[in-house]
Amino acid sequence: MSQGQNSRRPEETMEGRRRKREKVIVRPDEDETPPDEVKPDDVKPVCKPVKVTGRGNGRRTHYGQFKYGGKRYKLEDSVLLNPEGNILNPYIAIIKDITKKQDGRMMILGQWFYRQEEAKKKGGGNWEINDPRELFYSFHRNEVPVESVMHKCVVNFVPDHKQFPKRRDNPGFIVQKVYDTVDKKLLNMTDKGYEDAQQHEIDVFVDKSMSRLGDLPDLEPKLFHFI
Description:
Blueprint: H1 12-24, E1 44-46, E2 51-53, E3 60-63, E4 65-68, E5 71-74, E6 78-81, E7 91-100, E8 106-114, E9 134-145, E10 149-152, E11 155-157, E12 173-180, E13 185-188, H2 196-213
Parallel strand pairs: 9-12, 11-12
Antiparallel strand pairs: 1-4, 2-3, 3-7, 4-5, 6-7, 6-10, 7-8, 8-9, 12-13
Protein name: BAH domain-containing protein
GO molecular function, one term: chromatin binding
InterPro entries: BAH_dom, BAH_sf
């Protein structure tokens, strides 16, 4: 899997829906709100800027955290995102960047997880899952307004030789596979072919998850029956 995958579009249905959401969720006109009125769900950056990039209208101020709806969010948080339209389930992403545009709008760059019904096979159909909580990780990223964020969520990266944690003890989503959005195939988290930065990213998520989950039992070996 190459770095070029990140900049290429996934299947049209997913990208179209996400673009539709971006158009629906807009910041109200400044003229509609008196200057001295502050809404409880206003988006506010937290702490000093991390850096500034771009020039002119493309200038961006980057932050490590923001506050929205009375809750604080930071880089690397996993969040549910508002699915506008006729989509039932929220989108799920990891916050990879937080920026403020010149017009005052704040955006997040999300790295997306795919649900089973969103992960299409190249020849048609969907990839199967082992548990309703299972998601597929991906290296696909795109930008959405901060107002899309609903709330944080927990995503556990579980090595493929380990059993899934019990729901009652460890609520949250589970990842064991990576979805290649270009070739529409599933990969193991330990497969060869990832760039060093991508493999490191996966390893960090696995380490954090296992630290949170503790020592999970190994999968029982499959028994082969011979005739």
